[in-house]
Amino acid sequence: MKIYxxxxxxxxxxxxxxxxxxxxSQEKANGWYKQYDWLxxxxxxxxxxxxxxxxxxVETFDTAAINKELSWAHEIGFNMMRVFLHDLLWKSDAKxxxxxxxxxxxxxxxxxxxxxxxxxxxxxxxxxxxxxxxMPTPFVHNSGWVQSPGKNVLENLEKNKYLKQYVxxxxxxxxxxxxxxxxxxxxxxxNTNNDAYGKIEPINKxxxxxxxxxLTFQWAKKVNPSQPLTxxxxxxxxxxxxxxxxFDKLCLYNSDIISFHNYGNAAYFSKSINALQVFHRPVIxxxxxxxxxxxxxxxxxxxxxxxxxxxxxxxFVDGKTQTKYPWDSWTKQYKHEPALWFxxxxxxxxxxxxxxxxxxxxxxxNRF
Length: 368
Description:
disordered N terminus
């Protein structure tokens, strides 16, 4: 296997990879950010979908459900959503996939919501299969979520030329679309999913994820969309740029705007903010909010608003993803709904899980 080494320069490159376009300057990135009010929203999967495939496949894509749920989001003050795509949707029906993306963006624009699309995802099931998806495993968090690309493709990146076609095809089609906020290239590319699927993940999963992210930066920068590119570090200490993990450097020194994940309490979140503001670029927390860990709307949103950090919590409407159950539901048996939900904001009928939370969100986003 070719070894990819990060070089300690402002624009990071990897051996064997050269980027045709440098990342945006700080001035361009901050100028882009000034056009937006404070960005607040959620990671969105419709309640009817167990994963990205059931969300987007023609047999299950449901514009009525999406319209209803995005109207709920607008009502509580959300103006952005992070949404996952999947390479198999492009491989099986690129034309139809693009049509459905356009329909989704039309609905989002109707409700004044900008979209942060995610192209690839390294979390959960490494063996995605198109077609009818399985039913959720009772009481288990994200029991049917699938990786993109799957294990077999990830282990043979050079042979799967369609991945580059997917990235460049999507960006060429939507790279100047004002309804799209930005592009999140790979979600948690070095995540090894130890508690859920660790036994069937590649031994060198982290290295493969690093390579995928490097290539995706290369492919995306060559298209040079008008929206910014980003990839989020999600663990570790970012305050020491010398000791920082190579994967985190790849994310932070190549992204046009900075994004990150943080499911900790207010003190831990503040530490992340302080570490990332030294890059002098717009910052968006693209994953937060796990109530039992202290990552709540009341604890985190004031910090984000004060520092003009975009905030995108995990989950919106309780549905097939079942992320109201905690991560440890993969190793601990649950028999009923947890007293304290892990993620999600609304019940399936649109009513708040916690009315005081929704009231708080409305107030801090000036919906009241």
